[in-house]
Design brief:
The protein has 14 helices and four strands.
Length: 379
């Protein structure tokens, strides 16, 4: 009788594809825009043409793509795991400072004081580099530290926080306090991070001028490819068994524990991955914007990351990316046309999304499409 039973593999549902056919088409289109269309419009289309992509637009879009990586990282822990962090600006800034230290060493003797030390150290009468600048002249070591430093800080904090079963608003407050404490530390001149001014006036990266049009476009392409790669990684994570456990932790953590799973390991893993994503985003942000200072660790900066995620739509992956572009595009426009109203607009936007669009822009779009399909069905 058992001989006629189908094999076990035939009884199991087929694994869901990473992306649908339209999803892969959209990803390919985005890749073409980032790697081919944008460089052509910026480098080869004349400035007088209506199709020319200006250097300002390249810098703005590149900066927003860095923010979109942070929003995607926030979605993994907030949208899919139910952990609201108000301190992810810390990990973004740590990655930025690691890259900034390398860029400061690349200045060499081209600074105002013609010294091997960064200008701010000469001004403060420092005689040698502090110990934590030891590997800052190596690009390879910088890439490793961009990942390692945020990961280590996130692991240590998350290990004790999750083991202590700190949840909800208490966890959010503690992450905000951690970021604020780090900001105060980096403000101090004796820590060797440039104090209030931070790092700026970068000259070169890998020995090549950083302010050229070609280098800016290269950084733009790298940022876009990194954003798309992180999106695929996040999609793979949430589609896997690991991602399903995360969503179960979000919805009913006690039930997950009774089922034999240890939520601490899952939460700690996704927390570290999310921190690393923000660190990489910060490292890509600094050479494009040209500055990094403790202001990136402000509580407002971390709250904005949560706002982008909420506006776009939590637990959707693509929603936070859309939210980052919408909010920062509006910020770029409003801070020029009506700077005094920007913060009021941001607060009103967050309240409106919370009250009327709990699933964000993506959820509103899905609702409109669903209603349209229902009308067609009735007709």
């Amino acid at each position: 009788m058992n001989q006629h039973l189908p094999p076990l593999a035939a009884l199991l549902p087929a694994p869901a594809p990473l992306l649908s056919r339209s999803g892969w088409a959209g990803l390919l289109l985005a890749l073409i825009v980032v790697c081919a269309l944008a460089p052509v419009l910026n480098l080869w289309v004349p400035e007088g043409s209506a199709f020319h992509l200006s250097d300002y637009a390249v810098a703005l879009i590149g900066k927003i793509m860095c923010y979109a990586i942070c929003a995607l990282a926030m979605d993994l822990i907030w949208g899919y795991t139910g952990i609201l962090s108000l301190g992810h600006g810390l990990f973004f800034a740590l990655g930025g400072y690691v890259m900034g230290m390398y860029l400061m060493r690349q200045i060499g003797r081209d600074g105002n004081y013609k010294s091997d030390l960064p200008d701010f150290m000469v001004f403060l009468d420092w005689k040698e580099l502090p110990w934590h600048w030891t590997l800052s002249d190596s690009f390879f070591a910088t890439l490793v530290l961009v990942v390692l430093v945020p990961a280590l800080v996130a692991f240590v904090f998350g290990f004790f926080a999750f083991r202590s079963r700190i949840k909800g608003v208490y966890f959010s407050i503690i992450t905000q306090a951690l970021t604020f404490a780090a900001m105060l530390l980096f403000f101090r001149n004796e820590t060797g991070f440039g104090g209030n001014n931070g790092f700026t006036d970068f000259k070169r990266i890998l020995g090549r001028p950083i302010a050229t049009q070609e280098m800016r476009m290269l950084l733009f392409v790298l940022t876009g490819v990194t954003l798309l790669s992180f999106f695929l990684l996040a999609r793979w994570l949430v589609k896997s068994k690991f991602g399903r456990v995360l969503q179960a932790v979000r919805d009913a953590e006690s039930r997950v524990m009774f089922s034999g799973y240890n939520p601490i390991g899952y939460k700690l893993t996704i927390w570290v991955i999310s921190a690393v994503m923000c660190g990489v985003a910060g490292a890509l942000y600094v050479p494009q914007v040209g500055i990094i200072n403790p202001g990136e660790m402000s509580t407002a900066a971390s709250i904005e990351i949560a706002v982008w995620t909420a506006v776009g739509g939590r637990a959707s992956l693509v929603g936070p990316i859309i939210g980052a572009f919408l909010v920062n595009g509006a910020k770029s426009w409003l801070t020029v046309t009506a700077p005094e109203f920007w913060l009021y607009f941001l607060g009103a936007l967050f309240i409106a999304v919370t009250l009327f669009m709990p699933k964000g822009v993506v959820g509103l779009f899905d609702r409109i499409v669903r209603k349209g399909n229902e009308k067609e069905t009735r007709a």
